[in-house]
Amino acid sequence: xxxxxxxxxxxxxxxxxxxxxxxxxxxxxxxxxxxxxxxxxxxxxxxxxxxxxxxxxxxxxxxxxxxxxxxxxxxxxxxxxxxxxxxxxxxxxxxxxxxxxxxxxxxxxxxxxxxxxxxxxxxxxxxxxxxxxxxxxxxxxxxxxxxxxxxxxxxxxxxxxxxxxxxxxxxxxxxxxxxxxxxxxxxxxxxxxxxxxxxxxxxxxxxxxxxxxxxxxxxxxxxxxxxxxxxxxxxxx
Length: 237
Known about the structure:
By secondary structure, the chain is an alpha/beta fold. It contains 10 helices and 6 strands; from the N terminus they run βαααααβαβααβαββα. The chain has one domain: Rossmann fold (3-Layer(aba) Sandwich), CATH 3.40.50. The chain has helices at 20-34, 41-58, 64-79, 85-92, 104-112, 125-135, 145-148, 155-168, 182-191, 227-236, and strands at residues 8-11, 116-121, 141-144, 175-179, 195-199, 222-224. The chain has a 6-stranded parallel sheet, sandwiched between helices. Helix 6 links the parallel strand 2 and strand 3. It starts with 7 loop residues before the first strand and ends with a helix.
């Protein structure tokens, strides 16, 4: 099997193409400082991770900004720190400000010459529209949690991806899923029979950051430390 065996790539967006940890930290850091919390950025992200995942399970019909607000309030409750409506709203409304990774735009443009590109993301369409401006590429399809009514790692999201594969006429075994999160993406994608590419953005950094640990062992089909390295490998096949 090689990267030339595929006709389409499905992408997680946040954590893979958009730097969501930098985006989260830009809000959580000043909040923590304002309330005298002596925590590193990494500790804040790790503490936050389970709250977002829990909110997505408990409120699958909420759009992503509401999930962010719920997660921040839950984090504050755990840490014994109040979260005002303005503070929760600052995280809820922050997605348009989250930066793209420096290699995302060029890498996507290169990959788009060879593959159909699909987004499968825990996001809403309004928030993604701003992120898409940063990425500068037209995706064949954009599938969001808002469309599906559930959040990854729910199998419902990957069932929606499978329906889209069939609708687009992409052959069986010709779709490759690309993502950073083992928890949100690789475990459920492989359970659905997809081959996967791990963009290990946190290589060299211990822990899982803003993403929970994967619930089961998983071995991605390919691993790269950046989108640029992945695009290089695809170009070489």
